Amino acid sequence: MSKTFQSENGLELYYQSWYPQASARAVLVIVHGHGGHIGILTRMVEYFVECNYIVFSYDLRGNGKSPGQRGHVNSWTEFRLDLDNFINLVKNKEPNQEVFIIGQSMGGTIALDYILQESNQPKGLILLSPALEIGVSSWKLLIGKILSRILPNFSLETGLGFSAASRDPEVVADCEKDLLRHCQGSARLAAELLNTIDWIKANAKKIETPILILHGGADKVTLPQSSKDFFESLTLVDKERKEYPDSYHELHNDINYLEVLGDIEDWIRRHL
After folding, report:
1. CATH superfamily of domain region 2-269
2. 53-57, 154-158, 167-171, 221-225: which has the minimum mean pLDDT?
3. Could you give the CA distance from residue 50 to residue 66 in angstroms, rounded to a whole number?
4. What is the pLDDT of residue 30?
5. Is 219 exposed, middle or buried (0-12, 13-18, 19+ CB in 10 A)?
6. Torsions phi, psi of 31, nearest 5?
7. In this predicted structure, which of 114-118, 159-163, 213-217 has the lowest mean pLDDT?
8. pTM over 0.90
């Protein structure tokens, strides 16, 4: 089922929900990454619905079928409040279900910022290739920070090609044909993302939500060493991290996606 929900400043953001035929174990809220949309999550959605989970996901502002300049945000607060509104919607629809958040790439950054600042906590947080250090050229990031205040809407190609998404050539070909995908990033988004990453790292010891971090060892989009360093900085006991040595950025779309999704489902089962 596809609908829209209202963001904090009035944008109607596109979302979908999927229900299993049998009784549901829990609700999974998936937050996609930069330049993505709900459609790139098909394998993950189908897998978890088959495992009897309810799945909700939405297109971030400026992405997919949601409105807004492609790859732009005025303030990171918009991302956080959009997720908060969406979590409230999910809990209103499914008040008796436990909620887990799955954040992919920049969606992981949004989810981390959310659990650090909002009281509406999930049962657990799963991060897939979280954006804690970006494989974008340093000069583009520097330009973004400089222009953020004077030309916040100025946009550049990120330079992160689709070939870095997956080792599966069919997935890469689909990415290149997907009209809803984009590689645009505004100056303001770059500055807000970098500032948020720094803030999350500085506050990592405050995280109390159980957390699973999964990363591809060959990821050139979000660097795996950054999630390893972040994991080691976490002080909570209930934390796990797994690295898949040869995997690329989109773990849910790589050739070993069934292994990855199986690891997520096993972790969720152990936290119900």
Report:
1. Alpha/Beta hydrolase fold, catalytic domain (3.40.50.1820)
2. 154-158
3. 27
4. 98
5. buried
6. -115, 115
7. 159-163
8. yes
**CA–CA gap between residue 261 and residue 31 (Å, rounded):** 15
Q: By mean pLDDT, which of 156-165, 183-192, 194-203, 234-243 is the weakest?
A: 156-165
Domain residue limits, the chain = 2-269
10 dihedral zone (left: phi>0; alpha: psi -120 to 50; beta): left
> Which residue's structure tokens are 């990031």?
141
